[in-house]
Write a structure and sequence with these properties.
Blueprint (H helix, E strand, L loop, with lengths): L2 H8 L4 H4 L11 H4 L2 E4 L1 H4 L10 H6 L1 H7 L3 E4 L3 E2 L11 E5 L6 H13 L3 E6 L9 H6 L13 E3 L19 E4 L4 E4 L14 H16 L4 E4 L22 H5 L5 H11 L7 E6 L8 H4 L8 E4 L1 H4 L17 H14 L6 E3 L8 H5 L7 H12 L5 E5 L20 H12 L4 H11 L36 H6 L4 H14 L1 H5 L1 E5 L6 E8 L2 E8 L5 E2 L6 E8 L10 E2 L4 E7 L1
Parallel strand pairs: 1-2, 1-13, 2-5, 5-9, 9-10, 10-11, 12-13
Antiparallel strand pairs: 3-4, 6-8, 7-8, 14-15, 15-16, 16-20, 17-19, 18-20
Helix pairs in contact: 16-20, 17-18
The structure holds 6-O-alpha-D-glucopyranosyl-D-fructose and calcium ion (CA).
Length: about 575
């Protein structure tokens, strides 16, 4: 076979085609080169021993975070909130939740982070606020209250509102009746999270003002919660009879989305050198560019939920089949997303506070394979052409706790869904079995710092149970062990930063039909890097399609693997190759 010919047909990359003014090699925006580390403040480190993680707790651990080599900390919501949905129900956007500390604590944390070269982005929740927010408290008083139009109402004299499902409501309905004004209000999430009405210019101005408030304090950007939901068809038409319940597609990304994004860009985002990330619930490769096309006035990045939902059984709540997910579909999906955002920039993640632990969901958390498979997944995230997002604890290969008793759960999603199933006489046992694998609380257990009580997270009983495996899985133990997941993570980040092909090279999938191994090539100018990842617990072979190894850059096995095309269980190798 003529390798050269085969190769040149496959690699359609011209380095010059990549460099565009402003976004080319010279003008790389900082957020394209960054590695993001997500911190769930409630679960990271408790400085005052009340069992709840807090801002000063994060400040204490900034040296640890900096030592990882990551660039950006994304903090889940830290604003005033009654915490029905752990801060995604904000009652005052300009104040810090007292459990987490004060504004001074936050400013101190931000200054210290900046001193250590770390950037901080905040989680901004534009689609809904808390029902305890002053706006809603006012709005519900009377139909002519000045804040009435901050929310979506359906007057009861018009009859029942058209069916809309809610993510978290026990009765599954996104409309909640209020006797006082004889109207229903809209809440796509729980009844304590009324949707804000972005059609109202006063709502938009209030939101932009809040963003300026935090940006002027020096924060480095925002992750924007369920951004596609801000524009809706506010006529609320009846759903078509054929409608199958995929409501995210149906009632987000409404007619004024582009207008709102452009306005937000003009009035706020364009004034700062920041990172802006949309949470892209329901966004597909067909619509992603509406959010991140550099030619538009919009955001920098979007992370999609298509990857997170891969493998779930249709029409069942977050349930995986015994066989798990199919690697061929995983490869296709990430390749499709890579291609879709080629002229912009991608993001990649395998977990967050809404998901199971990365190693439990996508790798293998059995004793034999937990570490090696976690390292393999880290290798994937740090070698794709996208800004990688890690969730705190991924670097330690922290795994699911798998609560089997409903009383251990804290998350509104699990608790309300449990209640809903119970009221409908559904199969609660099956629900708990599936939650052991996919529940959001799996990722919300306290960070495992050491072997002391409560894993060193707190001296008091934490708000949610610590994973009992902390005695063996913890940062202190991994700090000094040369080949620990923690130290592998650090090495991998350095490798990414030193290797232009990994940082911004083109991506090309190889051996697409291989059901066990994910193989791809990254190329920048004359540098070719091949990444081969065995997603299986058996030895697996792959076809390097003629590429010849020049130099091994990194791998998750101690000893080198001299056989280029045979991988050991969950083996990951990154190597420079030549044709
Ligand atoms: O968590 C989910 C599935 O288990 C998602 O459907 C999630 O509800 C959706 O992606 C929106 O998530 C965001 O908004 C929610 C909040 O609960 C999540 O934590 C947040 O990431 C409401 O604000
Ligand atoms: Ca605390």
């Amino acid at each position: 076979m003529n390798l050269q010919a085969g190769v040149s047909k496959k690699i359609t990359i011209a380095p010059s085609g990549y460099a565009k003014p402003g976004v080319g090699e010279q003008g790389q925006a900082w957020w394209k080169q960054a590695v993001v580390y997500q911190v769930y403040p409630r679960s990271f480190n408790d400085s005052n021993n009340d069992g709840i993680g807090d801002i000063n707790g994060i400040t204490e651990k900034l040296d640890y975070i900096a030592s990882l080599g990551v660039d950006v900390i994304w903090l889940n919501p830290i604003f005033m909130s009654p915490n029905h949905d752990n801060g995604y129900d904000i009652s005052d956007y300009k104040r810090i939740m007292p459990e987490f500390g004060t504004l001074a604590d936050f400013e101190n944390m931000l200054a210290q982070a900046h001193d250590k070269g770390l950037k901080v982005i905040l989680d901004f929740v534009p689609n809904h606020c808390s029902s305890e927010h002053e706006w809603f408290q006012q709005a519900r008083q009377s139909r002519d209250n000045p804040y009435r139009d901050f929310f979506h109402w359906w007057p009861a004299e018009k009859g029942l509102p058209p069916k809309r499902w809610s993510f978290f409501a026990v009765d599954a309905s996104a409309w909640r009746y209020e006797k006082k004004t004889n109207s229903y209000y809209l809440h796509y999430f729980s009844a304590t999270q009324p949707d804000l009405n972005w059609e109202n210019p006063a709502v938009r101005q209030a939101m932009y003002q809040i963003m300026h408030f935090w940006l002027k304090k020096g924060v480095d950007g925002f992750r924007m919660d369920v951004l596609p939901f801000i524009s809706k068809d506010t006529a609320f038409p009846e759903l078509p009879a054929s409608f199958q319940g995929d409501f995210v597609k149906y009632y987000a990304q409404g007619p004024h989305l582009q207008q709102y994004l452009a306005e937000m860009y003009d009035q706020v985002l364009s004034h700062y050198n920041i990172m802006t990330v949309a949470e892209g619930t329901g966004v597909t490769t067909d619509t992603v560019m509406n959010f991140i096309d550099p030619k538009r006035k919009a955001l920098n990045l979007l992370y999609h939920d298509e990857g997170m939902n891969l493998g779930y059984l249709p029409n069942q709540f977050k349930t995986l089949p015994e066989s798990g997910y199919k690697l061929t579909e995983f490869k296709q999906l990430y390749t499709k997303w890579n291609d879709a955002v080629k002229s912009a920039w991608g993001s990649v993640c395998l977990g967050n506070h809404d998901q199971a632990r990365m190693v439990s969901r996508w790798g293998n958390d059995s004793e034999a394979y937990r570490e090696v498979s976690a390292k393999m997944l880290m290798t994937f995230l740090l070698t794709m052409r996208a800004t990688p997002f890690f969730y705190a604890g991924d670097e330690l290969a922290m795994s699911n706790i798998g609560f089997d008793d409903i009383s251990d759960y804290r998350d509104i999603e699990t608790l309300n869904m449990y209640q809903q199933i119970k009221e409908n006489g559904g199969d609660l046992h099956a629900f708990i079995e599936s939650q052991k694998i996919t529940a959001r609380d799996n990722s919300r257990t306290p960070f495992q710092w050491g072997t002391q009580a409560f894993a060193g997270f707190s001296e008091a009983k934490p708000w949610i149970r610590v994973n009992p495996n902390y005695k063996t899985v913890n940062a202190a133990e991994q700090q000094t062990r040369k080949n620990s997941p923690l130290n592998y993570f650090r090495k991998l980040i350095q490798l990414r930063k030193q290797t232009p092909a990994l940082l911004h090279g083109e991506y090309q999938l190889l051996d697409a039909d291989n059901p066990d191994v994910f193989v791809y090539l990254r190329q920048h100018q004359s540098q070719f890097v091949l990444v081969a990842l065995n997603f299986k617990a058996d030895k697996s072979a792959f076809d390097a399609q003629g590429w010849i190894r020049r130099k091994r850059l990194l791998g998750n096995y101690k000893s080198d693997n001299m056989e280029l095309s045979q991988l050991r269980p969950y083996e990951a190798i990154v190597m420079e190759v030549t044709s």
